[in-house]
Design a protein that fits this description.
The chain is of the alpha/beta class. Helices cover about 35% and strands about 20% of the residues. The strands form three sheets. Strands 6, 7, 8, 9, 10, 11, 12, 13 and 14 form a nine-stranded mixed beta sheet that branches. Strands 5-4-3-15 form a four-stranded antiparallel beta sheet. Helix 9 links the parallel strand 10 and strand 11. Helix 2 runs antiparallel to helix 3 and helix 9 runs parallel beside helix 11. The N terminus is likely disordered.
């Protein structure tokens, strides 16, 4: 007798009888990290709201700027299974408030196998329509990332490798905060130029500008945006990759004027000059310009909306962020959708979830590191972490995390000491 996995002997007068290769008794083809062959079950879901320190504040229009050091609330979602495996994901206390967790996340997740991420995500997403806008894509993303983190920690594997693993490092571009009116901050085109020189010396291989927005009294201004972009181009030279995110405040004709201005400066891409829910406006803009249009960034609709942008030629580069589309799983779908059109898919924002996606796909070039400002040290470790997830070397590379799960090195003792409430 020979098994099916063995090659047959040379032809002879013998009749070969094949027997299947058998697994040992009671051993399934795959089982959970524990000794039991039964599926794991989610046993506990909790949120810890805690105070940490921050040097960032939001203006009245929601844009981030430097500020005095102060206490800032964060929330940590923890999902634990009946084998003692836990996964963690950070979010805002508002997106993880008790009403949302109790009425949606727990109802879908409790008692289920945490490895069934796709099923759990789809079932949770179906609740959005009837949630009265309480269940947001950001909540979906935090919940789904905690499932990925649990799986990675249980299997002692980084999530980016679980997703397929394409690269072990990625180039970073420096992404500035919006402009302000602070002396020596980002108040003038010259300020942007000086900061761009610092970023080049720090090792960044590309730079993206966010220019001035309300409540700056005179903003937005196409003329001032072009001046800032021109000052930065002069500071870094003709061949350095530069991008502009114009923050969606402009009309079609203003967006066209600004696009032509930075196109003449040989900018690498043009991002969000108009409200992204007007897909037709972006299709019109892409037809008028040679500079690549990237998007959408914040438009609702997950992969459905990104598919519409690609199919209608509203963008030249697709855009996705884990928090924008409800998680890592839908982000991967969008990246592969873009890949099928031979299109790059650049990832919006930094953080552990986005870094995991970048580590697993081929059709992306950059990691967005920021938001950066002359008054902020991005390399400073937040007190609720033991290390940052995106350290950058002198050559501008971010290594993929080596810790299991999402790769965040969480300071649980600090969080315990600073806990405000747990639910």
């Amino acid at each position: 007798y020979v098994t099916q996995a063995d090659p047959p002997p040379p032809a002879s007068g013998y009749t070969l009888r094949f027997a299947p290769r058998m697994r040992p008794e009671n051993k399934p083809p795959w089982h959970a990290p524990g000794e039991s062959s039964r599926p794991m079950k989610i046993e506990q879901i909790s949120v810890t709201v805690f105070n940490t320190t921050s040097k960032k504040v939001n203006d009245t229009d929601g844009h981030t700027h430097p500020g005095p050091e102060h206490d800032s609330q964060e929330a940590l979602l923890t999902i634990t299974d009946d084998e003692g495996n836990s996964g963690y994901s950070f979010g805002s206390s508002e997106s993880l408030r008790p009403y949302v967790i109790d009425n949606y996340v727990k109802k879908v997740f409790m008692g289920e196998d945490p490895m069934d991420r796709e099923k759990l995500w789809i079932n949770l997403a179906k609740w959005q329509r009837g949630s009265g806008a309480n269940l947001t894509d950001r909540t979906l993303a935090v919940a789904e990332m905690a499932l990925w983190d649990l799986a990675g920690r249980a299997l002692h594997t980084p999530v980016w490798k679980m997703l397929g693993g394409f690269r072990d490092k990625v180039l970073a571009y420096g992404s500035t905060m919006c402009g302000d009116e602070e002396p020596d901050g980002l108040a003038t085109p010259e300020d942007y130029a000086n900061f761009a020189e610092w970023m080049v010396n720090r090792g960044y291989k590309a730079i993206k500008l966010h220019t001035w927005m309300p409540p700056v009294s005179w903003a937005p201004s196409v003329k001032m945006d072009i001046k800032a972009c021109a000052a930065v181009r002069e500071a870094v030279g003709p061949d350095f990759p530069l991008m502009l995110d114009a923050n969606h405040w402009y009309s079609r004709m203003e967006a066209l004027e600004l696009g032509r201005g930075i196109q003449a400066l040989d900018y690498y891409w043009y991002e969000e000059p108009m409200d992204e829910h007007s897909t037709e406006s972006y299709r019109w803009l892409a037809e008028q310009l040679e500079i690549p249009i990237i998007g959408p960034e914040y438009a609702y609709g997950k992969f459905h909306t990104r598919a519409e942008w690609i199919a209608t030629r509203a963008c030249d580069i697709s855009r996705v962020g884990v928090a924008d589309v409800g998680g890592i799983g839908p982000s991967m779908k969008i990246a592969h959708l873009a890949e099928s059109f031979n299109m790059d898919c650049e990832i919006h924002g930094g953080g552990a979830g986005n870094l995991a996606v970048i580590g697993a796909i081929s059709n992306t070039t950059w990691y967005e590191r920021g938001l950066l400002h002359p008054f902020i040290d991005h390399d400073e470790v937040p007190k609720h972490l033991n290390s940052i997830v995106d350290p950058m070397d002198a050559d501008g590379n971010i290594p993929m995390p080596t810790l299991p799960g999402l790769g965040e090195d969480i300071n649980f003792d600090y969080i315990t000491e600073r806990t405000i409430e747990t639910h």
